[in-house]
Amino acid sequence: MKMILRLAALTGLLALAACTSFPHTEKAVAKAEPAAPKLDIQAWHTDGGARVLFVHSDALPMLDVRLVMDAGSARDGGTPGLASMTNALLGEGANGLSVDDIARGFEDQGANFSASSYRDMGIIGLRTLSDPQYRDPVVDLFCRVIGQPDFPQSSLDRIRAQMMQGLRMNQQVPGPQVGDAFQATLFGAHPYAHPSDGTLKSLPTIERKQLTDFYQRYYAAGNAVIALVGDIDRQQAEALANRISQALPAGPKAPALPRAKPLAERQVKHLNFPSSQTHILIGNQATWRGNPDHVALFVGNQILGGGGFASILTDEVRQKRGYVYGITSAFQPMAAGGPFTVQLQTANKNADQALTLTLNLIRQFINDGPTEAQLQAAKTSILGSFALGTADNSDILGQLGAIGFYDLPLDYLQQFNAAVQKVTADDIRRAFQRTVNPDDLAIVSIGPKAPHIIPDTPQDSDGKTGQQHP
């Protein structure tokens, strides 16, 4: 215990000694700004066409690897759930190895293998010790798993049953149902429209050959980003990336998806469900990765509904009037689109008032934008939390994967930080007016009865709707 205390004290002294620029006066504190996270990102392509992003980090004797493929549910074609099923079966068998063989092979070396799937991307992850004694056999196994997956029929049947059971369970709760209906309403015939986990109709039709074909096409080296973070040097990183790239199927990058288009008029949809709460989703297709208005929309959304209890929607709809249990808003940019979404849950008796007030607040924010005080508070919150976005290797790995997959500049984090500092209230107002039309927002709900917008809602002297507590 004494040794631990000495180490803690020494660590604290070293940290203080290093803070030569720490602001010690009120004036210095006022001028201090959170530093943008600076990453020495090195980038190149393998011979197989994979894009590699590497950051050396010797903070821990670890190596983190993430493969990001353009292999999300947007590539399902006419078989919803195909991408998710393919990803879920990775690690279930490879070149004669069983799922137990693979699991033991990673665990015996203290390594971790993972796989996950989203609308835009399929992800394969590996964490291992960076010491070659442990790293090399783990990488050998990893390359075998990703290069020669078996997609065994027994695993397909088991995981299909699990996924279908999950879908049946979702039918017993309102949240997943209204989410799927909202996605379908916003995106229509676009590849983003269908449920990523498939449907009870589509999952039984998926056959093993579809999985192998999907993997060969969308998990190809030319369709991959390889993100590496850890205690290895550039030469070792290049050798590792080449091994991984060579293990993957050969093939090109997937063609770009068509850009999703926003709804041109309001759409209203209600699902009947015997619940004590009404769930409401409001929104429209609004943005995409690379949108020049991204920073203004991000900061504005923090003020409107993304900033927790400090946001306008939470303050007005929940805190002041008690209409909802929770309310949030978000922009979710993806490669070919991304919705603006407001979601709230309310007691059935308050659904009309909550919906009306929320729509009025959205319209008011689009028309007027934020106040200067709201803007400065949001900037302080964003810049303070953003500096923690590269606090450990896992955070860095996530940033690298996104930068590589969405073809963002290598200094994207610094650019974003600087843009947040410069954005103005007028920038936010104009960006919202270009992006969100309050008259075209879809309203999708689930509960015992459809909520209605209350006409001729009275206004307070400050312009906000004037309903009272129920």
UniProtKB/TrEMBL annotation:
Family annotation (Gene3D superfamilies): Metalloenzyme, LuxS/M16 peptidase-like
Single GO molecular function: metal ion binding
Domain Peptidase M16 C-terminal: 206-381
Alphabetized SUPFAM superfamilies for the sequence: LuxS/MPP-like metallohydrolase (SSF63411)
InterPro entries attached to this UniProt entry: Metalloenz_LuxS/M16 (IPR011249), MPP/UQCRC_Complex (IPR050361), Pept_M16_N (IPR011765), Peptidase_M16_C (IPR007863)
Keyword list, A-Z: Signal
Signal peptide interval: 1-17
Claim: NAD is one of the keywords in the record: no
Domain Peptidase M16 N-terminal: 56-194
Membrane-spanning segments: none
Compositionally biased tracts (Polar residues): 458-470
Keyword Cell wall biogenesis/degradation: no
Name of the protein in its database record: Peptidase M16
Region (Disordered) residue spans: 447-470
Coiled-coil features, chain-numbered ranges: none
Classification via Pfam families: Peptidase_M16, Peptidase_M16_C
